Amino acid sequence: MMTITPRPVRGTRWRAGPWSVGPSQRFVGLDVARAVALVGMMIAHILPKTVRGHVPLSQRMVTGNSAALFAVLAGASLALITGGRVPHTGRRRVEDSSAVLVRAVVIVIFGLALEQLHPAGIAVILPYYGVLFALAIPFLWLRPAQLFALGVAWMVVAPVVSQVVRLAHPTSTAGGFSGLGVGGIFLRLFLTGQYPAFTWIAYLFCGMAVGRLDLRRADRALALLCGGALAAGLAAVVSHLVTSLPGVHERLVATWDGTTVHSWAALQPELEVGLQGITPTHSWWWLAIDAPHSGSGPDLLQTTATALAVIGAALLATRVVPRLWQIVFGAGAMTLTLYSLHIVMVLPQTWPDHGPRRLLPEVAVVVIAGAVFALLRLKGPLETIVAVISRAAARAVGRLLKIRGDRRG
């Protein structure tokens, strides 16, 4: 098989600091995929969920898929910063673990601060994102095949465990974190929220597997594209076949937790809009549905596979004129900053609410900001803060380990 090394972008002779990044340090295709995920989440938040009782194509494309793509890419990032194809070992591994843990804490803090702004109808993903980072630490050193296998197994087991626990201990899942104690916040982040970390870590496992691959190889990207598309289609077909069994539709209608529905035809638009991160607990048939943000096995598989296909397509596309892709999709290199900016922009006191017409101006702000930072080869402000703090933690742990080693020596 032919291996092609991406051509470095010319004109970079300085050493990258915490505020700057050289092109050789990133896979542009992953940044393109991140930009796609960011714009997808903006579409999901701004455009109407239904039009004349039907879910528009734009919402069906992005709802669930964009957030899952973010999570899979988070796993890929974790793998890359901890060694890429060859995971770090020894003291470096301990330093990496410390840096990831601190990164997780900082992101949770950012997310909870944004949650306090109470943007109507929006569940901020960052607190869950940070918890996922922390949960991934023990698994960072596994090989790609092990991570993929673990991710698929988790898609099967985790929804069942979640259903059992929530059936035994029913709790409210509505709203954000306001008014909750530490235990309530933990329960929502881990099990009952919009992006429950217990089930969503399956996305990180698969993303970490991607980050451990040789992403410079075209055959790896092609495998992600084709394999992802095939698995996504398989998940949809299997879900349709199972839920079409006699009596299943009636049981799902009878146990629906949302607005009152009396037929499968009336329930379908509700499912297309998406659930609140988890399935209803009154029937085991809910674990067979393929609905956005349901956390069922078919949903996890379909969204993971779609994410892998998008990543594969982006890696293939960016093999040609990578610097152009890097600039046009520069928003993908600073999604923490720009996602946070988006959460602020959707507040009516920040940006007058003109309905769907506000989408293009807000996307323009995000795209232009990303392009400017990419042209200047700068990291986003929040990315810089996270990098500085996490690197400082890693250096502190490294010095401590060195002192202990010297004393033992």
Number of strands: 0
Give me the secondary-structure category: mainly alpha
Portion in helices: 55-70%
The secondary-structure element order is HHHHHHHHHHHHHHHH
* Gyration radius from CA atoms, angstroms: 21 Å
Given as residue ranges, the uncertain stretches (5+ residues, pLDDT < 50) are 1-16
**Beta-strand residue fraction:** under 5%
Per DSSP, the total helix count is 16
Return the average pLDDT rounded to an integer: 88
Q: Provide the number of structural domains.
A: 1
Main sheet makeup? none
- The coarse silhouette is globular
Distance between the termini: 47 Å
Note down, in words, how this protein is organized:
Helix content is 63%, strand content 0%. It is built from 16 helices and no strands. The chain has helices at residues 28-46, 57-62, 65-81, 90-115, 126-136, 144-168, 182-192, 197-211, 218-243, 248-254, 264-273, 297-317, 322-328, 335-345, 359-375, 381-408.
Can I get a quick summary?
With 409 residues, this protein is mainly α.
Write the layout of secondary structure elements.
Elements: H1 28-46, H2 57-62, H3 65-81, H4 90-115, H5 126-136, H6 144-168, H7 182-192, H8 197-211, H9 218-243, H10 248-254, H11 264-273, H12 297-317, H13 322-328, H14 335-345, H15 359-375, H16 381-408
Label this structure with key terms:
single chain, 63% helix, 0% strand, mainly alpha, 16 helices, 409 residues
